Amino acid sequence: MVSTRVWLVTLGVIALVPILVLCVVNRFIPTGTDLKDPLGRPSDLSNQIIYSAYQFDVITARLDPKHQELSQSIQVLETVATDLAKLTDAAGRLTGLAGTVNESTSGVIGIAGGLPEKIQTIPVRSDTAAPTVLTLAGAIQAVTNQLAAVNGGLQTVGSSLATLGPRAHSIAQTLSYIEEEAAHVRELGPLLALLGPAVNGPQTPAPQDPGQPTLRNESSTPSTSPHPSTAPATPGR
């Protein structure tokens, strides 16, 4: 029966032989670090992967706001793209407008071609118009003087009317008094017509001017009027 020591030695030899063969083939000599960390390089790679994942999370956290800003920028860019499309359409229409501008420019050039001759005729016409302007200025000055004289006359008339204004009331009173006296004389007219011939007697007609026509004496002819004739009356109340 195999003892425990023999079995362990046999197991160790069987285990060490492949290890030695692998070390010789791979030219690898195990050290204390290899015995402490059997995984070796794969463990370091795992730690690097974990650290890289952490850094990726950090970068992702930082990129999240950037992503939102990018979304807003994209929306703005869409608006700008729309405006650019409109601008492109407008630029397409500029071709026809440019042709119109060229035609208008040609017309302006044609019109401007005759301007030098017309500009040269302006001084000649100005010299011709200068005497007329002087004559017109003299006429305007004469009209101004006449208007000044008319203004003076109007001021004189205004002053006269201002002086006559206070007398208008007294003139109106005098005319009213004359009207009242004429009414009284009209009432006494028939009586004066009867008393006049009796008081004054027959009157001799006054001699007439040879150059004037002879007037008919109405008092010498019988009156055909049914009313008695009225003699001139003296004013009185």
Which characteristics define this entry?
237 residues; mainly alpha; 4 helices; 0% strand; disordered C terminus
Q: In words, what does this structure look like?
A:
- This protein is mainly α.
- It has a domain at 43-192.
- It is 79% helix and 0% strand.
Tell me the total number of β-strands: 0
Weakly predicted, low-confidence segments: 215-237
The SSE order reads HHHH
Taking all Cα atoms into account, the compactness measure Rg is 72 Å
Major beta sheet, specifics?
A: none
Distance between the termini: 200 Å
Structural class per helix/strand content? mainly alpha
Shape: elongated
Residue-averaged pLDDT: 76
Q: What percent strand? A: under 5%
Quaternary structure of the protein: single chain
Which range best describes the helical content: under 10%, 10-25%, 25-40%, 40-55%, 55-70% or over 70%?
over 70%
The number of helical segments is: 4
